[in-house]
Input
Amino acid sequence: MVLGFSIALIIFSLLMILLVLLHKGKGGGLSDMFGGGAMSTGGGSAVAERNLDRITVIIGIAWFASVVVLSLLLKYQS
Output
């Protein structure tokens, strides 16, 4: 059980990193330093950005839930 949630946590963590990096930069931050400023001038689909936001929130909730469940499993493990 602990192994399954540990693997899920690793997968959710990697997905969160990927999804956050896919977001369009709003300007003036680290995204501009890595070339996001040049990409943000082009038009992107608002629907795609909204869907990316929704997926990021869902994966974030799943990540948080797996952290909580894993910590409870490790706390009450006999």
In short: The mean pLDDT is 84. The two ends are 13 Å apart (CA to CA).
